[in-house]
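Q: May I have one protein plus its fold?
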Amino acid sequence: MSRRDQIRMTDDEVHAFLEEGRTLQVASINADGTPHLIAMWYVVLDGEIAFWTYGKSQKVVNLRRDPRITVMVEAGDRYEELRGVTVAGRAEIVDDRDAVLALGERVYERYWGPVTDDAVREGVRTMSAKRVVVVVKPERVVSWDHRKLGGTY
């Protein structure tokens, strides 16, 4: 078995890793062809990675022009601990206000806790006014978990 096969995560491991991850690295393509890389908070929505961001942000401008996107979640401080998932695909931009608000509430709950009262809900609604949702439609998933090597290189 190749080293690549040894460190590949199963589908269940990929799902669990994405659910526990905290920060998503998002790469889009600038007009001049250079990569635009930014960190975002995210949720897993129906098995796909999704995040919300300002509709006029550079990443959204880039994705409206060229929907190719690559995202990555990674963890580990030492080589033998390194884990990660990279998803390359196409971005679907969702402008529907109800969908944006619903995803905003999910992001809020994931990072700050339950939306428990009207003041919090109204705050999320206010934040959602200028935002869109980006859903990553996967075409290729690459994963690695160096812990599977048992400390060997």
